[in-house]
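Dear colleague,

Thank you for sharing your sequence with our group. We've completed the structure prediction you requested, and as agreed, I am returning the results in plain text so they can be pasted directly into your records. Please verify that the sequence below matches your submission; if there's any discrepancy, let me know and we will rerun it promptly.
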Amino acid sequence: MNAQVEKALEEIRARFSPEEFVVEPDEQGGARVRFGPVALGPSFVQETTWLAGHLPPQIPYADVYPIFVRGDLARKDGAVLTAPVTPNHTFMGQLSVQVSRRSNGRDPTVETPALEICEGIGLAEFPMKRHCSLIFPQGLFDRLHAHLFPGDGDEHAAVMLAGLVEIEGKCRLLVRELYLAVDGTDHVDGNYGYKMMRAEFIRPHVRRARIERLVYIGVHNHGGRDRVDFSQDDLNSHDRGHPALLDLAEGMPVGAVVMAKNAVAGDIWFPAGNRCELEETRVLGVNIRRLYAAPPSDRHVAAHAFNRQVQMFGEGGQALLSRAKIAVIGAGGVGSLLVEYLARLGIGSLIVIDPDTIDVTNLSRVVGATIADAVGPEWPIPGFLKRLLFTFPRRKVDIAKRVAKQANPEITFQAIAGDFSRDDVARQVLGCDFIFLAADSMRARLVFNAIVQQYFIPGIQIGSLVTPDKDNGSLDSVFTVTRWVLPGVGCLWCSDTIDRHQLAIEAKSNDEQRDQDYGSGAVNPSVITLNAVGASMAANDFLFSYLGLFAPSVVASPRRVHHLDRRVVEQVLVPNHECTECSQSSSSRFGRGIGMALPTSS
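Please find the predicted structure tokens below.
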């Protein structure tokens, strides 16, 4: 199979998360694939089907056509299946129904194989089961929890407005606004069930959700702990009210959430007519907390290679790491160390982005780089030897992949040799669970900070700075810093870590910089031991945060290590409540998801 077909198979697996996934390579570089189960629509006797099709080697420029489903497919109304849906075919040894509906897509970057499959079978007849999660910043969750559970044992309610992210077959709802219903005024005795929110309270929030392209979510609480579900009265109220809310929302989903102590359940309705439960609720604080409708039954057994670390955080912790998708921006001195640390921790999927190739000055600090990687055309060696050496990877991301695969052969690795400030590159990380920024450009900081605040993906920025005293040859300062950035916390704009002047310089072309006498900037000193301090602090903070191991007293503040006098300083940041990036003001990018453009270049 060629690389594009392998990528398409990974994207299909990510979009549908099937229990069964069978692949048969063909002889031309393509593949036949069958997977399932996938939920069917209400028109059919069967509840689920498998899906199958041929991925030609010309993917993504060729259609996935035709598509096949289970051979015993039957409509509830008894109607005979007719073109483009025809029975009595065989595919991959299975009796099949053929769906001969071509995709009308013309953009291969948008019309992905997984999307073609969805269009080919017709979402109106085969509504795909969505994987939906709810994500809170810690502060908003604490405020909601205090309102719902004041200690009186009664029911309380609120409205949440959330940004929407739909990527890789998954839907994320990002809670950015919270409106608490006042008992007796906004939240009153119900006409059918125990309590209800008054239409006068709901209506303006639905209107705002429609205008701002946000998702309206009503929330209330039940008693108990660790488990929660909607009552039948709740579900009946959804059936009565949510269709009208969908009409008011004009193309945006709507939903309901019920909370108990340490448990959250949800019922999210989509304009296409399908609905889904919440798979997970995630609270982004110093410790990343995960809440479910009931305690998950994870029976993951970690590979023996991870035995010693499993003794620290258990099989459940290792399972979380194995499902994590992490991005590392920059594969140089700091990034290459992070790649090795993360691979050895057992991270399931890693995206590494860096546009650069290795040169000989990188060898002292880029993990895994060899002299063969740094050979250039100017080296005085025979041509046949150059050709041989050039067969080895010279891009930093390829070296990072080699390191990761040697450390953990099971890791899924995506190497992107591109500029993170470009829109098509930055969007590759929007499905990640955590981002490390190990690149030193201001444009990379700008985009990284925007993604954390807009898409609620936590991250850490790492850097080192050596300042020589040019007059006497001594060192003025040597420090390493790690900056934790969470939604609403640690914003790089609020901490003055993004330099507007340098941003303007970096926005110029190389010719413009030269003509305007900006030069290319002085090369900063860099030493592997300084990089290792930052990389290890960042990787360890990620590990403790992601697995919820930090003590409650820990604060997500920047940490600066001054190496000349061995001082460690925790910086105190004061957030700007009018910040257009991280504040909860109506105009900020905070939690907007797909509702706002990123500050990237085209």
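Summary note from our side: The chain has three domains: 3-121, 131-291, 304-570.

Kind regards,
the structure core
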